[in-house]
Structure formats: structure tokens, C-alpha cells
Amino acid sequence: MTNYAKIQFHGTNGWFDNDTGCTSCISLHHEDCIFIFDAGTGIRRIDPNDVRDRKVIIFLSHLHLDHSVGLHFLQRFRPHSVKIIIPSDLVSSLKVLIAPPFTGGFAKSPYPVIIKGVDPGEYRQDSITFSAYKLLHSTSVFGYRLRIGEKIFSYCVDTKSCPGLNAAATGANVFVCDCGLKRGQNSDSHSHMTPEEALYVADKAGVDRLVLTHFGCTRYTSNEERLELLDLSERLLGELLIAYDGMNLLL
């Protein structure tokens, strides 16, 4: 097993698409597997040739449509197999969402599709270990942390500061974090993060690289507004990155 993994950002918006980007979707490519984090509209930007005949494991944080509507696009891919990881209390809702009359469903899929409900804890999946953490939002939502070799990737969106977020971020080489709010906004009345809060969590957790994503599309209306956050870099011990659709990283 190698430590090498490529991370691609396909959708970095929250709520809906605009000229800045699609809704939430990130892929992590490692050996014969592709790990996809959330299935917003950005999933359509994944190259089908990257997916063909490979194992696909989708980690759904929750079922708000900006994180799940892209499941409808899966039929354009021809993977070896698909496994969907989701909080266990949302499994029955997912089965409704991806069945007639809303979609054609997976019953006649040319490849096997397995839905696996998980609770907070650690799991083994193929060549990696992953952990699920309960986050704080208006609905059940999980953050995920993957260990690939000696590297740690953490993904947490649609949340505000909470114990699960802190645990998921601890020691991460790459920590992808919600930035739904703008600087100085009051997160107490929202279930999203300000950039200042994300930096605080990352510093406390000893993160190497903090990647802000899931930008509130009515708050951040241009990439220039997002990039203005880079002047917060001096407050962070690690590296600060601002996600955009089409961005690539190495883990």
C-alpha cells in the first residue's frame, strides 16, 4: 500500500450552484479505489474514465440535497462497484431518495451498490481505516477521517464547533472544513462555521493543511471574496488553502 493519494475538489458551494461553483463533492484517488465525499452537483465533474472499473466508496455526511442530489448522476459512471457510507439513522431515507419515483434506483444497476449505515466509531474499509464523528447541524450529520498509510484526511462540513469536529481534525495532514459563514458572523444561530472558527479548530488540532470549503453561496458570490480569506494565514500555524472547483491536492 502506498501513501500516495490525489484529492480533487469538484464542488465547493453550499446550498446551490452559481458562477463560482457546484455543490459539495470531493474525490480522493488511492490505488484501485476512489473515495467520494458527498454527492452534490459537483460529482458530474468527475472524469468517468477515472471511475471506470474501480471501486467507488461514497461517504455521505447527510442528506441535504446539496450533498446528495448527485447520486442521480451515478449511472453515467461504470465503476467496479459502489458502496455508500451514511449515518445509520439516515439509511431508510436514502433508500427512498434513490428509488422510484424520484430516480430509476439501483435495483437494475450494471454494478453492485451497497448501502452501509455507520455509527460514530472506527471502521476498516479495503486498504484504509476510517472513523465517523457526529457533528452539530440541523439534521443528523457525520464528519469522516481516513487514515491512508501514515497520512490522515479529515472531511467535516455543515457543522459548527463541537467535540466531534475537534476529534476528527486532530493531527490531520489535510483537514477540509466548512466555511459557510463570513468573518464575524454569529454561528450560534447557524449550523455552519466562520473562517475564524475553522482556523481555531485547526490550530488546536495540530492540522498541517486547512482547506476551507462549502462556502455559503449567498455570502461568497465570487472567488475573489473567498481568496480574501488568505490574509488570515498569519493566524494559522499550518497552511491555509481556499478550495475552488477543479483544485487538486496530494495527501
How would you portray this structure in words?
- The chain has 251 residues and is of the alpha/beta class.
- Helix content is 15%, strand content 32%.
- The protein is built from six helices and 16 strands.
- A seven-stranded mixed beta sheet has the order 7-6-5-4-3-1-16, with no helix packed on it. Strands 8-9-10-11-12-13-15 form a seven-stranded mixed beta sheet.
- Helix 4 packs across helix 5 (195-205).
- The model has no long low-confidence stretch (mean pLDDT 93).
Descriptive key words:
single chain; 251 residues; alpha/beta; 7-stranded mixed sheet; 6 helices; 16 strands; 15% helix; globular
Per-chain topology:
Elements: E1 6-11, E2 13-14, E3 25-30, E4 33-37, H1 48-51, E5 55-59, H2 65-68, E6 81-87, H3 91-97, E7 113-118, E8 121-125, E9 128-134, E10 142-148, E11 151-156, H4 163-169, E12 174-178, H5 195-205, E13 209-213, E14 215-216, H6 223-227, E15 239-242, E16 248-250
Parallel strand pairs: 2-14, 4-5, 5-6, 6-7, 11-12, 12-13, 13-15
Antiparallel strand pairs: 1-3, 1-16, 3-4, 8-9, 9-10, 10-11
